[in-house]
Amino acid sequence: MGNALVICVLLTRKKVTTMTDVCLLNLAISDLLFVVPLPFQAHYASEEWIFGNAVCKIMAGIYYIGFYSSIFFITLMSIDRYIAIVHAVYAMRVRTATCGIIISLLLWMTAGLAAIPNMAFTQEVEIEQSLKCVPKYLPGQETWRFFTQFEVNILGLLIPLSILIYCYSHILKNLQSCKNRNKIKAIKLIFIIVVIFFLFWAPFNIVLFLDSLQNLHIINNCETSQRLALALQLTESISFIHCCLNPVIYAFAGEMFKAHLKKIFQTCIRRISSSNSANHSHSLPTQVLGYSDSDRVL
């Protein structure tokens, strides 16, 4: 709902005119894309996979494209803010909508390429007389298993978190050296962004890394394997919540965005009120005369 509101505001009220607008729009789209497979996964969790091999691969592709693109655009927004605050003069040349669109296209292509291995190996298989939609690696393809898992760790946490820490640490230094009424608010928002990103994505990546160690037979215990499988499902579910929080953190925190959102709600309320008034006016003659059809003299 929040991501849909972000798209609605940007396309109808605010317009996409800056790098920040482009980032917000693409982040909202990627978050919506990320949750598209959720209804399929919900049914799959309660029963078995019934949607066929093609849908299995498509949902895997959509999931990972949404996953990578969401994190890429969060990282891009951090770089955008870093340039805007730390390199204000240079920012005038690069923080344009055109530049944002070009970079966004490159990031979508990168997300698509990063999702290809997961999409290629995910398929419908029968395990213990039940259909599953899972990655399947044939003998000799174990290298790809480790590649896909470490790819998530590196592209999904290590690189983005490193960039976030670098950008926001320099932003904090810059804010401390200038006297601004909104400085404390900006510092709090920066702290929230980094902490929330870490809290929601670190557990999933840590469990995924431990699962990789298990596949390498470094961890080789049946009870531990069962716990890791459960932990992987739990932490992955928690990471989905981050997509719902993104609009609150990045869009709704902005004063201009909240103003445009308020205008949309006011317009909707006015339309509803005018519609109710019109319906009320149509019923006035009968109410004024004080009789219904059954009271008329024939």
From TrEMBL:
GO MF entries: C-C chemokine binding; C-C chemokine receptor activity
Family: Belongs to the G-protein coupled receptor 1 family.
Membrane topology value: Multi-pass membrane protein
Biological source species: Chelonia mydas
Keyword flag Transmembrane helix: yes
Annotated Pfam families: 7tm_1
Name this protein carries in UniProt: C-C chemokine receptor type 8
GO cellular component: external side of plasma membrane
Entry's transmembrane regions: 22-42, 62-84, 96-116, 146-168, 189-210
UniProt xrefs under InterPro entries: CCR1-9-like, Chemokine_rcpt, GPCR_Rhodpsn, GPCR_Rhodpsn_7TM
